Amino acid sequence: MITLRPSDARGHADHGWLQARHSFSFADYWDPRYTGWGNLRVLNEDRIAPGTGFGMHGHRDMEIITIVLAGVLTHRDSLGHQAVIRAGDVQRMSAGRGIRHSEVNEGPDPVHLLQIWIEPAVRGIDPGYEQRALRPSSVGTGVRPIARPASSVSSDAAAAPDAPLTIHADAALDLATLHGPQAVRHPIAPGRCAYVHVVRGSVHLAGQRLGAGDAAMVADEPAITLSDAEHAVVLLFDLAPNGATPVPA
């Protein structure tokens, strides 16, 4: 089963300083058909005006991935981190038992970003922060791992500069960059599901042409194939059913 989610069918919020598109129900946007997919809970596409942003606010028990597509975002949090996230950078924040942070556009240009929330496999962990540079020149054509479960990545592998982010969730995230006739086949293990989100360009999937902002929810399929792309950048999520357990006392 492959269910398409067109870009213009997403929720939209216009706050003046913030233009947001919500793939799933979020804040004032509610649609009972789209409350998440597997353990993926949020995929927001935000555009933040210069000199504005999200002030200090709290999260808990969520794995949060931010991908900056354009502009420069400044991150500060209650753990003492202060970081600049530039276009091509990806950040992971594990909210765990509680963290407060702010995300502000202190630059002269709008910031365009994707923010992703994934349910953790275990609740109540120590909060944490991680950031990687993901420049287009380092990606090339093909598929690159962006995030993997922390339990599947050794400490030595995680320390490598091109290592994927480590998330405390039963999920994986890849970035596919495609152009031309070549095809990418993305296998899906039995009992799992997938989510495809087109960041840029266009690509062919299941007899349909998907453009920027379009997505597909995939279940009960052995694989999906992306082909006939035009300068496409695509996020590929490998997801588990929802559910998390508390940290043992």
Write a structural description.
By secondary structure, this protein is mainly beta. It has one domain: Jelly Rolls (Sandwich). Helices cover 3% and strands 57% of the residues. It has 2 helices and 22 strands. The radius of gyration is 17 Å and the shape is globular.
Summary tags:
nine-stranded mixed sheet, seven-stranded antiparallel sheet, 2 helices, mainly beta
Strand content: over 45%
Helix content estimate: under 10%
CATH class: Mainly Beta
How much is the average pLDDT? 91
What is the C-alpha radius of gyration, as a whole number of Å?
A: 17 Å
In CATH, the homologous superfamily goes by the name Jelly Rolls
Distance between the termini: 40 Å
Query: What composes the largest sheet?
Result: 9 strands, mixed
Give me the count of strands.
22
So what's the overall shape?
A: globular
Q: How do the helices and strands follow one another from N- to C-terminus?
A: EEEEEEEEEEEEEHEHEEEEEEEE
Give the helices and strands, then pairings.
Elements: E1 2-5, E2 11-14, E3 18-22, E4 40-48, E5 53-59, E6 63-70, E7 72-77, E8 82-86, E9 89-94, E10 99-104, E11 111-118, E12 122-123, E13 128-133, H1 136-139, E14 142-149, H2 155-158, E15 165-167, E16 171-180, E17 184-187, E18 193-205, E19 208-211, E20 215-219, E21 223-239, E22 245-246
Offer a quick outline of the entry.
The protein is mainly beta. It has helices spanning 136-139, 155-158; strands at residues 2-5, 11-14, 18-22, 40-48, 53-59, 63-70, 72-77, 82-86, 89-94, 99-104, 111-118, 122-123, 128-133, 142-149, 165-167, 171-180, 184-187, 193-205, 208-211, 215-219, 223-239, 245-246.
